[in-house]
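Catalogue entry: protein

Sequence with per-residue tokens
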Amino acid sequence: MLSIGSVLRRASLIGFPIGSPAGIVAGMIENVTKAPRSPRTPDEWENYFDLRWRVLRAPWNQPRGSEKDERETDSEHFMIVGPDSSALAVGRLHFNTPAEAQIRFMAVDPQAQGHGLGSLVLRECERRARAAGATSIVLNARDDVQKFYVRHGFLVVAPGETMFSAIKHVRMRKEL
């Protein structure tokens, strides 16, 4: 286990001021096992859904519970777990048909963004979809994250819905 002092020293070595929130998170991320996996414990499940709510629903004043839907039990859930069991990045995969998978509820803790964690979760979703026989994968992306998915080979195929009367989405697809 790392001491707070060692985390702060490492964060300062990679360019963040000692004690800054970004510096602390950067030091934590450096020591995270960056292999996405399913939540394992009740605390991890709570942290998983909490991150989804904080990033994808709370900014639009949506109630807790709105970060879940009817497909939770037939989906695969992935997260990158921080050293303190916090959820740093999450995503969910389900199948619309045997050939078409869908990614939903991708979220990265705002303080952990820019470190490749979302890319790791996305690649794991793609890997699992391929392994299960999917030939394509779809998702609905917010306008502000569309470039992230384009960098990973997704193409815009249609306009998407506007959620909460404020968040425009586009439908994206990738052939696997």
Q: What stands out?
A: The first helix runs from residue 4 to 13. Residues 2 and 36 are 21 Å apart (CA to CA). The radius of gyration is 17 Å. Helices lie at 4-13, 21-30, 42-56, 117-131, 146-151.
